Amino acid sequence: MVLRDEKTLNIMPDDHIFALDIGTRTVIGLVGVQKDEHFVVHEAEIVEHQSRAMVDGQIHDIEKVVHSVKAVKEALEKRLGFRLHRAAIAAAGRVLKTSRVQVSRDIEEGQEIDQQFISALEMDGIQKAQLNIDSNNGGDNEQYYCVGYSVVNYYLNDFAISSLEGHKGKKAGVEILATFLPQTVVDSLYTVIQRAGMEVEYITLEPIAALNLAIPPDLRLLNLALVDIGAGTSDIAITKSGTIVAYSMVPMAGDEITEAIAQNYLVDFNTAENIKISISTRNEPVTFSDILDNEITVTPEEVNAVIFPVVQKLGETIVEKILEYNGGKSPNAVFLVGGGSQSGNLCKVIADLLGLPGTRVAVRDRKIAKNIIIDEDVLKGPEGITPLGILVTSVMANKKDFFHVTVNGQKVRMLNTRRMNVSDALILAGIKPEELLCKSGRTLKFYVNGEERTVRGGFGKPATIYVNNVVSRLNSSVSPGDEILVIPAENGVDGRINAGELIEDIEPVRFTYNGNTQYIYPQIFINGTEVLPDTPVKNNDKVEIVREYTVKKIQELFEIDSSVFEFTLNGLPVKQETVVRPGDHLEANLRSGGSIEADSVVFSENMDTNFELNNESASEQENENASNAAAATSGTDINSFLDDVRQKLAARDGITVKVNGKLITLPPKTSGYIFIDIFNCIDIDLTSPKGIIHLKLNGREAGFTDSIKSGDVIDIYWEE
Questions:
Q1: Which SS3 state, helix, strand or coil, does residue 62 take?
Q2: I want to staple 188 with a disulfide (CB 3.0 to 4.6 A). Which of 59, 70, 76, 305 is the partner?
Q3: What is d(CA 274, CA 259) in angstroms, rounded to the nearest whole number?
């Protein structure tokens, strides 16, 4: 191609792609275009870094890397005749951070585990993995993109299980390996491209790029391992079901093999590198001079024998990571790419260690890509897989490096390196898994007269997820511009019951005292203290309900002189030890010849344990029904009797009400409580008006003189 002056360069055609592989030792650039089902590479260029600008795939000296990128860019521009102003790039697999975590979640009694539960559990694991990485980095609040994760094990009741779906139990757990790309790595790559006078058109990961080129689509459903053996490190990617689920790296690669050759034959590093490449590409003797100027000729078999211990160690290290990140199991096959992949008998070593047939571990070079049209002399080895893969992957992703979705109105930036799901978007938006899964209310357990009772909590309402107004799930895929709406889950209300609701027989004892009839209702004690019927029962409370009295007890409560009065039960004479039960009619009649003042027939002040079974905390309708039922049974005004009891207990204990969301106990008072009593216990100054004051009692408008009782909900506020 004719070289052109920089001033005459045309604009880069829209359909052309500049793929740039920024490696530890070299920068490889190529320019190609898609034509029908093929990719045509017009030009390629390789430039070595002048000095150590990259360490293990991460940029250390930006300006030195910019210099190498510019050299590749300018060389290609001169041959192509147009300016390169955009580039597709890839982050090295070795810059990824991986965390292994285990999380668990309680299972509702009787609940069958579904996919939504499993997805939320895995989402919880991903967030925990990211927190682990954050803490290891000193909590720098850096953003991380989850680029893949794999499930090591599921657990049901702490026992490993292959699948959770459909099971029931008490606890479910998952152990995952999650891999993240730090934002700083992305920023460094973007800075290099910008300083080189270009913009990033697309970014991917080197293992993904290699996968898309080295492994045909029909094989990606298998469990495979892809190993990119570079100069300083070997990157590992594990695939399942068509996607990469785990990444790893070992700090050992081709340089160790080169160094072994250099030390054995007393040659410099470059000579040793040439020897390594020669024996891997040509099966013939190699001649070279050592540092003493001795001319030496060696066969490939001799060199392989020298490097075998290093190759064996490299293979062992790679296999160890493959097994760790693949759940302890060998994959179906292993593919090797990268410049160091052809060293010695590495394929055989890895196959033997994994227990795989030799045919299941193979080196992939660009010949595998039948849809690539390129000059035979350019990037013909395995080192060409990644840059060619960047080209292909860029086209597959429609050249979109990042895309945006909205989650509950919040714009979320997503890295376009794999199939992105709703759960990925929710993690980036800061949505917690507990907002997605509902819980039933807690079961209330207590004891009534020594017998265990339970009240189950209400069922919760799971979260609802919409993608573009369509009901979706956590594992549903998302696309650029999608609008995601999450309506959080609602937990069920805890089990609750009031003391009065525990009394099954509401019929009182009817007691006639010298012609004056009164009603004796059951006593209720919670943990030894008598309470009103509307008192809430708490967990593990011990409730005692006293329904029966002896004649002697009633005599003592009413301070009745047995020498003056005699007792009959349901019309029959009784002894003091006789038990009086609900529905009974006990009478105290003046003995023959006895006398008593009329106004002395009153309730004793000791009789402060009589209660009505009306539930004051229930709805008004329920209150009315309960009152009517009690009145029909007893034939008396139960509510007036309850008021008397409340007054006596208030005089002893005070009352507790909720004012503006806070519980406040008013001091004991012998007379009834009214609304204005509240102002003695709250910080509201009525002498300094701030508008119109609103008084609400149990949700309705109230006045200063309205009666209040224990358990009432009160709201007081100014309206300007």
A1: helix
A2: 59
A3: 12
Tokens 């002697």 correspond to: 552
Phi first, then psi: what are they for 561, rounded to 5°? -85, 110
Secondary element (H or E) of residue 146: strand 144-156
In b/e form, how buried is each residue of 656-678, taking b as 16+ CB within 10 angstroms? ebebeeeeeebeeeeeebebebb
Tens of pLDDT, residues 177-193: 888 888 888 888 889 99
pLDDT for 594 equals 54
Which tokens in the block code for residue 334? 């292993």
For residues 601 and 148, give the distance between their C-alpha atoms in angstroms, rounded to a whole number.
85
**Structural tokens at position 258:** 């080169």
Tens digits of residue pLDDT in 295-312: 999 998 999 999 999 999
**618: pLDDT strictly greater than 60:** no
Tell me, what amino acid is at 219? Answer: L
Nearest to 664 by CA among 652, 650, 654, 673: 654
Judge contact between 390 and 89, C-beta under 8 A.
yes
Looking at the predicted structure, is the pLDDT value of residue 645 above 70? no
Cβ atoms 206, 237 nearer than 8 A: no
**Which structure tokens are listed for 11?**
């604009």
How far is it, in rounded angstroms, from Cα 261 to Cα 56? 22
Summarize the chain as % helix, strand, coil (round to 5). 30, 30, 40
In degrees rounded to 5, what are phi and psi of residue 167? -85, 160
Query: How many CA atoms, within 13 angstroms, populate the side-chain half-sphere of residue 172?
Result: 25
Report the distance separating Cα 30 and Cα 417, nearest Å: 21
- Is the domain spanning 654-720 CATH 3.10.20.30? The answer is yes
Q: pTM here? A: 0.60
Joined together, the tokens standing for residue 354 give 């994994």
CA 56 to chain centroid: 32
In CATH terms, the superfamily for domain 1-143+152-215+364-399 is: ATPase, nucleotide binding domain (3.30.420.40)
Secondary element (H or E) of residue 524: strand 523-526
Rounded to an integer, what distance in angstroms lies between the CA atom of residue 40 and that of residue 16? 10
Sheet holding 692-697, edge to edge: 662-666, 655-659, 713-719, 692-697, 700-701
| Cβ count near 252 (within 10 Å) | 19
Q: Kindly report the average pLDDT of the chain as a whole number.
A: 81
CB 471 within 8 A of CB 464: yes
Q: How far apart are CA 342 and CA 384, in angstroms?
A: 13
Which of 394, 392, 339 has the alpha carbon at shortest distance from 365?
339
Least confidently predicted of 266-270, 371-375, 559-563, 640-644: 640-644
- Taking the C-alpha atoms of 196, 202, 206 and 210 in order, what is their torsion angle to the nearest 10 degrees? -120
| Most confident range, picked from 105-109, 250-254, 303-307 | 303-307
Phi, psi of 370 (to 5 degrees): -70, -15
**CA angle, residues 357, 150, 186, in degrees to nearest 5:** 110
Mean per-residue pLDDT, 614-635 = 36
Ordered by start, the domain boundaries in the chain are 1-143+152-215+364-399, 497-651, 654-720
Q: 654-720: same fold as 497-651?
A: yes
pLDDT higher than 70, residue 606: no
Helix, coil or strand: residue 484: strand
Tokens at 281, concatenated: 């590409």
Indicate whether 620 pLDDT > 60: no
CA distance from start to end of the chain: 82
2-13 tens-digit pLDDT: 445 555 677 888
Over residues 454-505, the pLDDT tens digits come to: 888 888 888 899 999 999 888 888 888 899 999 998 888 888 888 888 876 5
